[in-house]
Amino acid sequence: xxxxxxxxxxxxxRFAPDRGLTGRMVATMFVIGLLYVGxxxxxxxxxxxxxxxxxxxxxxxxxAQFWFSDKITERAMGAHEVTPEQYPQLHGTIDRLCALxxxxxxxxxxxxxxxxxAFATGRKPEKSVVCVTTGLLRRxxxxxxxxxxxxxLSHVAHRDVAVMTVAGFLGVLAGAMTRMAMYSGLMGGNxxxxxxxxxxxxxxxxxxxxxxxxxxxxLTRLLSRYRELAADRAAAQLxxxxxxxxxxxxxxxxxxxxxxxRDLRQAQPYNAFYFAPAxxxxxxxxxxxxxxxxxxxxxxxxxxxxxDLNR
Length: 311
What we know:
This protein is mostly helical. It has twelve helices and four strands; from the N terminus they run H-H-H-E-H-E-E-E-H-H-H-H-H-H-H-H.
């Protein structure tokens, strides 16, 4: 309890700090935020008569996303909070890891899904949730489960879950704002504009929106791949058992490839949150812009950490 209170008051956890991850998160949020502000400015300039609606939409949706993103993600991924009486081993493992990492315990949830996977979400450690699927609990040994949970807890401790949620949403928000602003500005509130100005606006706005989305997409993919490697490193160093995490990673990736394609497609929109992406073996091999680094790269890193720890 004392360790949890210290962490809540602003002390760093015992997860290894990652300056590379912190720098990438700051840079990603700065660039995407700059794009978002610039995009909003373009809409205001081109659709002068609709600027109150544009400001209201952009501000309102951003605030709603920041405050309710964790709840939205939990519901979309079927997470249901569970008690220590329902899942004593799961809670016990998270209790030990949180004590070891000196961090507040997140809410614990389970998703009734045969796909073996796990994820964490929440805008700050005190409001976070760590969720595992029933498929993961059924397939992993206790030490493998510990490695996966340590990986997810490191996402919470490093706060990269919140950054990924907000960063990924801004690109989608740009597209939504485009549709709403063009409808309100061109179809209703901007009728006094001449046809030439309207035509220019209808050409420029979708183009700028597309650029914002593409840049946001690329930046979040780069950050996502790095943060997965960072979480693997932090989990292996905290538990001191990189081989258990490597075993879990190999087992989960292999089992996911055997899940029916229809179920994988339903889970793919949330790949950035998962411990391992919901992809078939053929899809994983061709993912140049994947949310996760390749299995080989993750296993190589864990092998290096294991060698270092043995020394």
